[in-house]
């Protein structure tokens, strides 16, 4: 099993606002998952968060998606962004994790998910859509990693809390404080 310190050492050169506490939660909750869990991630960015997740859970099958914006200024640069991200993933993991330029609105997903990671636009509207569309696909006992839940200047918490007030089968297991990281771990109980 990999340690948090080993993960941090392996991801230190990837640009991102992912903090040490985020990786610590990845190791804590993902390193002992059985079999070959399926992880779906929205918001690849430059790959630091998903590399941390993949290092913590090397036995997982991982799909990660990002539309490429705001990482590129012009849509014509999207191929360059895609190649850079794939290069980062391959250099850190030896594979590209089924990385695609896409977003949660356009992607058609119908498989059950063991772990769902959302770190996309952070707007209330997009988070509400992602929560309503993808949380029901998480298996019973599965985990949801919501990045930026504890950041008051974005709409993630509002959308998540609104959904959880209606759907009582989800429980927050742990939330980083803003100094340690931005990840909140949620479990689907039924």
Order of helices and strands: HHEHEHEEHEHEE
Number of domains: 1
- Helix percent reads 25-40%
Q: Which value, in Å, is the CA radius of gyration?
A: 15 Å
The assigned CATH architecture is 3-Layer(aba) Sandwich
Oligomer: single chain
The largest pleated sheet is described as: 7 strands, mixed
- CATH homologous superfamily identity: Vaccinia Virus protein VP39
| Proportion of strand residues | 15-25%
User: Order of strands across the biggest sheet?
Assistant: 3-2-1-4-5-7-6
What structural class do you assign from the helix and strand content?
Answer: alpha/beta
Count of extended strands: 7
Dominant shape: globular
Question: Can you describe this structure?
Answer:
There is one protein chain. The protein is α/β, with parallel strands linked by helices and 190 residues long. It has one domain: Vaccinia Virus protein VP39 (Rossmann fold, 3-Layer(aba) Sandwich). It is 35% helix and 22% strand. A 7-stranded mixed beta sheet has the order 3-2-1-4-5-7-6, sandwiched between helices. A hairpin with a 7-residue loop joins strand 6 (170-175) and strand 7. Helix 1 crosses helix 2 (20-30), helix 1 packs antiparallel against helix 3 (48-56) and helix 2 packs parallel to helix 3. The protein is globular.
């Amino acid at each position: 099993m990999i340690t948090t310190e080993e993960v941090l050492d392996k991801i230190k050169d990837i640009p991102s606002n992912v903090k040490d506490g985020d990786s610590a939660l990845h190791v804590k909750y993902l390193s002992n998952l059985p079999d070959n869990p399926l992880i779906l991630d929205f918001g690849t960015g430059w790959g630091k968060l998903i590399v941390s997740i993949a290092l913590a859970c090397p036995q997982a099958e991982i799909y990660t998606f990002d539309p490429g914006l705001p990482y590129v200024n012009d849509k014509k640069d999207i191929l360059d962004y895609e190649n850079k991200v794939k290069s980062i993933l391959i250099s850190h993991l030896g594979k590209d994790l089924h990385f695609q330029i896409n977003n949660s609105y356009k992607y058609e997903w119908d498989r059950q998910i063991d772990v769902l990671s959302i770190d996309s636009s952070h707007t209330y509207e997009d988070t509400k859509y992602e929560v309503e569309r993808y949380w029901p696909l998480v298996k019973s006992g599965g985990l949801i990693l919501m990045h930026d839940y504890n950041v008051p200047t974005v709409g993630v918490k509002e959308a998540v809390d609104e959904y959880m007030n209606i759907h009582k089968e989800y429980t927050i297991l742990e939330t980083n404080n803003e100094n340690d990281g931005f990840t909140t771990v949620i479990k689907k109980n039924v």
